[in-house]
UniProtKB/TrEMBL annotation:
Keywords: Membrane, Signal, Transmembrane, Transmembrane helix. NCBIfam families: tonB_Cterm. This is TonB C-terminal domain-containing protein. GO terms for biological process: transmembrane transport. InterPro entries: TonB/TolA_C, TonB_C. It is found in: Membrane. Pfam families: TonB_C. It comes from Sphingopyxis macrogoltabida. Residues 43-119 form the TonB C-terminal domain. Residues 15-46 are annotated as: Disordered. The keyword Membrane applies.
Length: 218
């Protein structure tokens, strides 16, 4: 009888069966569009390109549970404030994410870190700079690149700006340099797909007399 009582005691269930652990549904977030299309050569700040300034900008994006970026931080500077500022402005405008999920499968935000290398593309047209004109005026360059990087059209316009020698044609033939450097890397949209794109640059020239040679402006 004692032996049977011990067997019954050990064989009796010790409470209800344990519940199986719930499945972990967590997933990391990821870019929903190609990060390579967030910042392209077409976005190079004109002043930085004129001065041939390059660098690498490291950034960190914070995005919400809908996948939209809410904050951009520079984690490593290129050494040039305009390149860093352009990086954050562009990725905040163009980046989009597939939000991650927590253990229960609910969408959650997150952070994303990457770098943008600002490098002037080989064969890029020289940016027109101030020329020795005697009168105030304006130069406007407008051109269209097709989806293959070719120059579909180009127009240079000059208002005022009479050169000292009286001939301004050669000095402001802006399209010659643009067309000679084609083809260019194809313009890309926010999803990294080739598109046609119009570019317009305007330079306004002003003059100011500051006195005889060697004089100091006041």
């Amino acid at each position: 009888m004692l032996l049977m009582a011990m067997m019954l005691a050990f064989g009796a269930p010790q409470g209800g069966a344990a519940s199986p652990p719930s499945a972990d549904l967590s997933e990391p977030g990821a870019p929903a569009t190609n990060p390579g299309g967030w910042v392209t050569n077409d976005d190079y700040p004109p002043q930085a390109m004129r001065e041939e300034r390059e660098g690498v900008t490291g950034f960190r994006l914070t995005y919400d549970n809908s996948g939209l970026p809410r904050k951009c931080e520079i984690v490593s500077s290129s050494g040039h404030a305009d390149l860093d500022a352009a990086t954050c402005d562009l990725v905040m405008e163009r980046a989009l994410f597939e939000p991650g999920k927590d253990r229960t499968g609910m969408a959650v935000g997150g952070t994303y870190t990457n770098r943008i290398r600002w490098s002037i593309p080989e064969g890029a047209p020289a940016m027109p700079g101030p020329l020795p004109f005697s009168d105030p005026g304006r130069m406007t360059l407008q051109y269209v690149l097709d989806a293959e990087g070719g120059v579909a059209s180009c127009e240079g316009r000059v208002e005022g700006l009479v050169a000292p020698a009286g001939d301004q044609t050669a000095a402001v033939d802006l399209c010659q340099g643009v067309e000679a450097s084609a083809p260019y890397p194809p313009p890309l949209d926010s999803e990294g797909k080739p598109v046609s794109r119009r570019y317009r640059m305007t330079i306004e020239v002003t003059t100011e007399d500051i006195g005889p040679r060697g004089g100091v402006p006041k």
